Amino acid sequence: MLVLIGKWLSWMFPDNWNPIRNLGALSFYLFWIVTITGVYLFIFFETSIDGAWQSVEKISNNQFYVGSIIRGLHRFASAAMAVTVTAHLIRELMLKRYAGARWFSWVSGVPLLWLLFASALGGYWLVWDERAQYIALTTAALFDVFPIVVEPMAFGFVTQDVVSDRFFSLLIFLHVGVPLSLLLGMFIHIQRINHSKTIPAKGLAICVLTALVFLSVLMPVSSMPQANLDRTLGSIEMDWFYMNLFPFVDLWGPNAVWGILGSITLMLTMLPLTARRSHDVARVDPEFCNGCSWCYADCPFDAIMMKPHAFKKNKRQAVVIEDRCVGCGICAGACPSVTPFKSVNEANSGINLVGRKNFDVLSELKIKLEEATGANKILIVGCDYGTDVKQFEDVQVVTETLECIGQLPPSYMDYLCRKKGVGAVLLTGCRSDDCYHRLGVELQQERLVRLREPHIKYADVGEKIDKLWIGKGGEKEIASHIKVVKKMLQENGAEIG
Description:
By secondary structure, the protein is an alpha/beta fold. It has helices spanning 2-12, 23-44, 51-61, 66-94, 103-127, 130-143, 165-189, 202-218, 246-252, 254-274, 294-298, 330-334, 358-371, 410-416, 440-448, 459-464, 475-492; strands spanning 282-284, 304-308, 316-320, 351-353, 377-383, 397-402, 422-429, 465-469. The protein folds into 2 domains: 2-274, Up-down Bundle (Cytochrome Bc1 Complex, Chain C), CATH 1.20.810.10; 282-492, Alpha-Beta Plaits, CATH 3.30.70.20. Helix content is 49%, strand content 8%. The strands form 3 sheets. Strands 6-5-7-8 form a 4-stranded parallel sheet, with helices on both faces. Helix 5 packs across helix 6 (130-143). It is elongated, with a radius of gyration of 29 Å. The relative contact order is 0.09.
C-alpha cells in the first residue's frame, strides 16, 4: 500500500519532495516543531492543579490567535509525527530493511515508539481537562497490574483533593525528560547510517509547516471541561493517533492490552533474527589501497573506517567493519584503483566484494558482448532490487545485474562506452529517491555528471549513457526505451565512441 502511495505521490511531488521517501527526515522535522512550540507553551503554562487548565485556556484565547496557532502546531505536529513514524516502520518492514547489518537501526527504533507515545500522552495530562482525567485513570489502571506499589495507583486519583501541585511538577519533569530521551534515542537510531537525512527537502518542509499552520487556523485546538475527580466522566473526545489502545483497556482489561503491547514489542525486536541471510562483504587489499578515503565517504552504513596504513609510511588505508557491511559494493565502485585501462594488475583493487569482484563483472560483460551477434549492441546494467533486466536479453541486448548500481566503477563506463560494437548503454535500478542501499543511485548520478570522485573521465560519456531509475515494475518503460534505442541505432547506423 505504501509503495503504491509513494508512486502516486511521485506524480504530485518532485522526487526529493516525496513524503513517502522522507518519512525519517519528516519525523525529525516534526519533532523540532513540537519541541519549539512546546517551549513557547511552557513559558505561559502554570504548574498547579488549579492553574494548569486555566493557563492553557488563556494561551488559546487571549493571545490574538498566536497562542491558539502555536497550540495547534504543537498538537497537529505531534499527530503527524505519529503518522510518519508508524509509516516509516511499516515501509521498512515491507522492504525488509531490518535484517543483517541493518539490525541495529531496526532494534534501536523499537523503544522510540514507546517514548513517542509516552511523550504525547504526558502532554495531554498537563492540560488537565476531562480527557486528561480519562488518560490518568486509564493509565493508572494499566500500571496497577504490576506490583510496584502496595496501594493501587488508581487510588491516587479517587478524589480531587488528592492530586497536588507536586503532581504537576512531576508531570512537567516527565514531559521534558521523556522527549529528551526520545531525541537521544533518535540520534542513536541513525548512528550506523552514513549521510542520514534528518531534515527534509526545503520545499517539502515549507509545505508541511504551511499545512500545519492552516490546520491550526481552520481547526483550533480546544480543551474539554476542566478535570474534576469528584465528577463522573461522560463521553470523551478521543485522539485516535495516541489513545487508540485506551478503549480496549475498558473492553478487555489491562492484562490483555499489556499482552498485546508486549507481543508486538517482542516481535518487532526479534524480527531481524527471523530474516538473517548470508550476504557478501567488502574487503580491503592494503597493497592497492592508496588511502583516498572515497570508499569511507560513500559507504551508506558507516561500515568503513580509516587507519594508518599497514606498511606504507605516512599513508592511510581503509578497513571494513564486517558486521556493519551489507555487501552493497558501493565502496568498490568508489575505488580509483580499479580500472580496465591498466596494462598490469588489472584485476586488483583497493577494496572489493569478496564474492564478486568488479574485475569479474567486467570479464563477464566482455564475454557476453563478444557472444552477442547483433550489431550496435545495447548494454543494460541493473541491480538486484530494481526491475529484472535479464528478461530483455536478445541478440542485440546484453544485460548485467549488480547488487547495487553504485558498484559499477566510472572507469568501466568510460571503457564500455568506447568498446567496439557497443551502440548504447542504459543504467537502471531502484528509484532515484528510494535506493535499497540508500545512496547507490544518488552517488552514481553524481559520478556520471562529474560532481563526485571518482567520476567518468570524459564529459561526453555521461551524455551518452541513458538512465532509468524506476525500481521494480518498470518492464514497460525499459521495453519501450529499448525499442526507441534500437530504432534510433538502425536509422543512424551509429555507435557510441
